[in-house]
Design brief:
The complex is a heterodimer of chains A (about 150) and B (about 210).
Chain A: H1 5-12, E1 16-23, H2 26-35, H3 41-44, E2 79-88, E3 97-112, E4 115-127, E5 133-144
Chain B: E1 2-4, H1 19-28, E2 35-41, H2 51-57, E3 60-69, E4 72-77, H3 81-86, H4 96-105, E5 109-112, H5 122-129, E6 137-142, H6 149-160, E7 163-167, E8 180-183, H7 190-199, E9 202-205
Parallel strand pairs in B: 1-2, 2-3, 6-7
Antiparallel strand pairs in B: 1-8, 3-4, 4-5, 8-9
Classes of the chains: A mainly beta (about 150), B alpha/beta (about 210).
Chain lengths: ~150, ~210
Amino acid sequence: MAMSVEELRSRYAGMVFDSVEVEALAEEMVGFSTACGETDPRYTDPGHADFQAPVNFTTKYHGARMLPDDFPNFERARMIDAGKAVAWHAPIRAGDTLTARSRLYDIYEKTGRSGVMLFLVHRMEFSNARGELVSVVDWRLILRGGLQ
Amino acid sequence: MILDLHNHSIKSDDSRAKVENYCQWIRKRDLPIDGFALSEHRQFDSESDYRPLEDEYGLLILKASEVETDYGHVLVYGVNEDMVAAFDFSRIDLPLSLVVEEVRRCGGIAVPCHPGRTRVGMVAHVHQRGSVEGVEVIEVLNGGSRGTENDEAGHLAEEYGYRGIGGSDAHIVSHIGRCATHFEEPIESIEELVSALQHGGYRALRPA
């Protein structure tokens, strides 16, 4: 029998299930900015005094796991990417080593024209080597039909 | 007085609209509405205080909720502490009969919204399982409904004698004011809105 939303929330919400380290390279920051249509030299010119990653830069990163190892199985074909929301906290500078910790921030259901949808909010929190929080990315995943 | 009775702000998980931006849009576009209600999905926003925005923009901003039931989505006006304790707003399988009764008992009014929509509207559920006692008002004009969905809502209202309201169901700023409700008497508070909805003297319309 499928776990209820309350059971899923109780068991998985808030638990850090993945941690990876990434390095913010200047060329990647410039490439990402350019691809987004950014023209401000703060984001496109490594020689600029305030050169930093664009606000949405951290959306390019993925952890080693999308979900906790023991999360109930479901058909991946029923999963939809519902987009990412980014919260900027501090500048990411070229060469910064970032630690990204992943957890399920929220689990909830809603109903739409297509029926029941289970939402998983996958949150990645990025900190720099000084331990400062620099970015938070909430990635919403929809499981159409919920757990069956 | 014209109020847009169904909108969502960033407090809802699927909306990107800030309340101040709604106010700015209404004034910038000179939309013929006097205020609007925020009906956040599966919750009641008890924290936000929009009185400064009301004063700045000269608009009435009311707080409501949109909950999910076995007959589709339902707008709830007049939310209070008793009501929040009476049932779990976050559930998606609330019995409509329970919502209607508990909302009434706590001094509010429940209004099934976008009734013509598949699954999340009450028309198909009524045809399958019959009507639900206690429903008096439904949303007959919804700004997000497609095709004949609003027509189906209107037919349901005629068939069962429901009164009708209108709301834009805006999730982005530019959608506010697409549908609204015209009240014969002025409304200045959520209590006055609930009373008006309970007693009549209003009609749904497209203001623009």
